[in-house]
Design goal:
Strand order of the largest sheet: 2-1-3-4
Order of helices and strands: EHHEHHHHHHEEH
Radius of gyration: 18 Å
Number of helices: 9
Structural class: alpha+beta
Strand content: 5-15%
Shape: globular
Largest sheet: 4 strands, mixed
Length: 208
C-alpha cells in the first residue's frame, strides 16, 4: 500500500534510500460514468503536467475496481489486465480510449452478443492504441472445451491477474467508484466533478 512521504523512514529498501513520494490511488471502473469523467479530465489536462511540475514527488496508481452489478465490468477490466501484461506502456492510453467508448459496453449494448464477441470488440480498442489486437484477444478468449482436469470454469489468460487486483482492492474496503486514496487514506474532498482547475488547486496545496 501507499506510504506518506513523512513516514518514508518506515520503508527499508535494499541498496537504495527510502523514496519520499506522494501517492494518489484512483479506484475506477471502466463502465462507471463518474469514473470516466474523472479519468478523462485527468488524462487530458493534468497527467501531462505532472513530470514537469512535480518531478519525483507524485505517483498515480490506477486501481481497476470491478463493479459486479455491471456484468461487462469484469470483461473490460480483463482487457485492461491483458494490456498490462502485453503492453504496459499503453495502459493509460488504452484506458482513455475505453473510457471514451465506455457506452458501447453498457448493459444494453452487450446483452445480445457472446462473451467472446465482447472481448473481440475490446481487443480492437486495445489495437487502436498500439497493443497487439490478436495477442490481447488470445489472453481473453474463453474456450468451449473442459480443462485438462475436466473443469468447466476454465477462465482465461488473465484470470489470475484479475484475482490479485480484486484481492488488493478488497484490502482497502473501497466500494464506490471513483474513490481516491491519498497516501493510503481515502480523500473525500476529491470529486468526479473536479475540473482541471480544481485538480491543479488541490495538487498545489497537497504535493510539497
Amino acid at each position: 500500500m501507499a506510504l506518506a512521504p513523512k513516514f518514508s523512514g518506515q520503508a527499508y529498501s535494499a541498496g537504495v534510500s527510502p523514496k519520499a513520494i506522494h501517492t494518489l490511488e484512483l479506484f475506477l471502473d471502466y463502465v462507471c460514468p463518474f469514473s470516466a469523467k474523472m479519468f478523462l479530465t485527468l488524462s487530458s489536462s493534468i497527467l501531462p503536467l505532472l513530470p514537469e511540475k512535480y518531478p519525483g514527488k507524485l505517483q498515480i496508481i490506477f486501481r481497476q475496481q470491478i463493479q459486479p452489478w455491471h456484468p461487462s465490468s469484469t470483461l473490460t477490466h480483463e482487457v485492461g489486465a491483458a494490456v498490462l501484461r502485453l503492453s504496459p506502456d499503453r495502459f493509460y492510453s488504452f484506458s482513455q480510449k475505453l473510457f471514451e467508448h465506455q457506452k458501447e459496453f453498457f448493459d444494453v449494448n452487450v446483452v445480445k452478443e457472446t462473451r467472446n464477441d465482447t472481448y473481440k470488440r475490446l481487443a480492437k480498442l486495445a489495437g487502436e492504441v498500439g497493443a497487439d489486437e490478436k495477442e490481447v484477444y488470445g489472453l481473453l478468449e474463453i474456450g468451449d472445451k473442459p480443462g485438462e482436469d475436466g473443469g468447466l470454469n476454465v477462465g482465461n489468460g488473465v484470470t489470475d491477474d484479475v484475482k490479485v487486483m480484486v484481492k488488493v482492492n478488497r484490502l482497502t474496503g473501497v466500494h464506490v467508484t471513483p474513490t481516491v486514496l491519498f497516501n493510503g487514506v481515502v480523500e473525500n474532498s476529491i470529486s468526479s466533478s473536479f475540473t482541471s482547475e480544481q485538480w491543479k488547486e488541490w495538487l498545489d496545496k497537497n504535493i510539497k
